[in-house]
User: Fold this.
Amino acid sequence: MQNELFIFNTLTKTKEKFTPIHPGRVGLYVCGPTVYSDVHLGNCRTFISFDLIYRYLLHLGFKVRYVRNITDAGHLEGDRDEGDDKFAKKAKLEQLEPMEIVQKYTLGFHDVMREFNTLPPGIEPTATGHIGEQIEMIKEIIANEYAYEINGTVYFDVEKYNKEFPYGQLTNRKLEDLLEGTRELSGQDEKRGRLDFALWIASKPETLMKWNSPWGWGFPGWHIECSAMSSKYLGETFDIHGGGMDLQATHHTNEIAQSQACNHKSPVNYWMHTNMLTVNNVRMSKSAGNGFLPGELFTGNHPLLEKGYSPMAVRFFMMQTHYRSTLDFSNEALQASEKGYARLMAAIKLLANLKHASSSTSDIVALEKKCYDAMNDDFNAPILVANLFEGARIINSANDGKETISLNDLNLLKKFMHSFVIDVLGLKSETSNSSSDKALQGAMEVILEIRKDIKAKKDFVASDKLRDDLNIHNILIKDTKDGPVWSITE
Ligand code: AMP
Ligand code: ZN
Assistant:
């Protein structure tokens, strides 16, 4: 194993040497999607970032138990137990059963994750499959006197908890500051403290998804599922817990409080948070209306997109920014990533038949070390990519006969370029070798040439008709500054 791995821990706000609880093994929990709608590219950034982390841990030889949940119940519109149930609302809108909504968007999520070449987690538990575990945990928290029941709803007593444990530690906030930022309780509120949150919510007559419990019919609050499922599969204290930064202040803060109140232990040794994907510096989200879907990105079928981008070009785009920095979406950046991805894959292809010489003109051993140093420094993928580009430069140069590589170095170069590009960054070749794809590619080149001629003759009616007719057959043509590009829209 190469050197030591350092991880930035949100809990301590420092990079810490990674020491797993059990040598050679890692327990990793990542908050998964709420499956009431399609995942947007921002959600994908978080899951792809953790895929890189999972892949690197595997590459280092760790045996990783990777758990990523599916939230399929209990998530209300507001993070603080207010608003409608997201699933019930969507079910009404689409005239489906809530579990049909869950199934539809879970399948869609899996398809997208496959497109991006992410490895599936070892366990993908659902909230509805673990109602019993959540009830047991709530019972224990009540027995430990950190929660109370009112009219069939159970609330976590934040102020009582804070007397013993720092509730706001994850975001470095004192209780007084948190209280100041929260609205005062009104006569209609049942809960005692304004920061108190629901562990169990009593159902109303119209509630569709409900279960029986010691407190009557109802459903779990959103936060308890992750505490119950992570401790079930990874233990009361485990190594790494991850999610997007937006989950720190409420969801993860409450997870820590619940687990501590139930098990008398801090649940997680390393908290990791990914930064947000933004569009024109505004966080991508469903509510901001700037959340385009992966499918739209692949086809280019969205007003913000000049053209379609392949899943691997998008994945590579994400790898070129560190997971703790914001990543701003732009067509220019994606087009640069397209080229970068192609350059890297072309170099890998050349590497297979590269000839060796008696000595090397570059220090390959040092280059490999730089790759490991980058990833060991809190998974610094952009620095890794810069070093892999240097590897690609050496490969091209050696192929052109301008540089030489010894046999030992060539074997080393093959080994680590392959490991980092394919296994760790998770990139794969996208060029199709099927004869029908090649024929389509050729036919489209011919058609685009004909359209160019028609346009040159200023027959725009005919050129638009050609474009519209192709569209009927799910072929989208977009005119970009580099000429027309085409993609298949389904
Ligand atoms: P949700 O389905 O809303 O529960 O979100 C699933 C995951 O996506 C969570 O870990 C969020 O923190 C993350 N997420 C949401 N929006 C973004 C964004 N714009 N960029 C990166 N991650 C995001
Ligand atoms: Zn969670």
Observations:
- The CA atoms of residues 450 and 463 lie 9 Å apart.
- The two ends are 44 Å apart (CA to CA).
